[in-house]
What does this fold into?
Amino acid sequence: MLGLFQKVRDGLAKTHDKLIGEIKRIVTRAPRLDAESLDELEAALIASDIGVETAMRIVEEVRKASAETRDVDVVSIARRIISEALASQPAALRMAQQPPTVVVLLGVNGTGKTTSTAKLAHQLKQDGRSVLLAACDTFRAAAIEQLKIWGQRTGCDVISGQYNSDSAAIAFDALDAAISRKCDYLLIDTAGRLHTKKNLMDEMAKLQRVLRKRLPDAPHETLLVLDASTGMNGLNQAREFHQAVGVTGLIVTKLDGTAKGGIVVAINRELKIPVKFIGVGEQVDDLQPFDAKAFSDALFS
Ligand SMILES: Nc1nc2c(ncn2[C@@H]2O[C@H](COP(=O)(O)OP(=O)(O)O)[C@@H](O)[C@H]2O)c(=O)[nH]1
Ligand SMILES: [Mg+2]
It folds into this structure.
């Protein structure tokens, strides 16, 4: 448990350092927080991308507390509000009534879909589950080979087809294989870019329809993979994918490389889509189940 917390904390170090540094600077300069300091505090919180609303709520609480006492503990107020905001959503992976549980990972190019597929496979294998992978990015050069390499490393078979072939057909075959092999999980890696954005959304919707022909309650999870360092852009991507296919959860990647880790709070609040996992590095064990308390503690410890 300590190891897990340490990983989350290391992953969030950039966001944490910047945020805590700013808060300390503001508080040290003017312990009796005046209007100007509160404005600065709000700006620092917004810069971490937690979202304007949450930033304003924190500042409001700090304002109230500082009317009553000196030396208000800004950090613990912020930690409490963020933890409360995040804790309202279940983070566990939804499971099928009967295996296989089918999980589709989608998102724009380069956000970390393929890597997250591998990391998730690794985690499930470590829990003793059988996992089959489907290489449904038939568009990007070398995408199939990339997943096959991860398949070898994690000990999972990969169902694949030809480049430029119909990815929904591959998904259908993979589901068929997962059912006949009695696999616990089928993880489907998808393309992040087609000729147009509309093509991509249509393709994702078709993939879901085709899966449902074989298994009516599939996919059990449709996880949108977002790169945390794209900040508020991620929110727009989430809106678009959600409208097209109904996203059931988020994987927020590359938190280790950004000071904008607060984006997790903003997305969670605005779209009501639970964050299920966070990516905090490039290695296969750098995917963490999202834990609201650990996350806010790491941000403000
Ligand atoms: N630092 C860091 N890099 C990541 C993370 N997740 C993915 N990456 C890197 O991002 C790049 C793109 O990942 P990939 O899975 O190929 O993205 P895809 O196009 O969405 O399939 C690769 O170099 C990954 O190693 C993460 O959580 N942290
Ligand atoms: Mg990929």
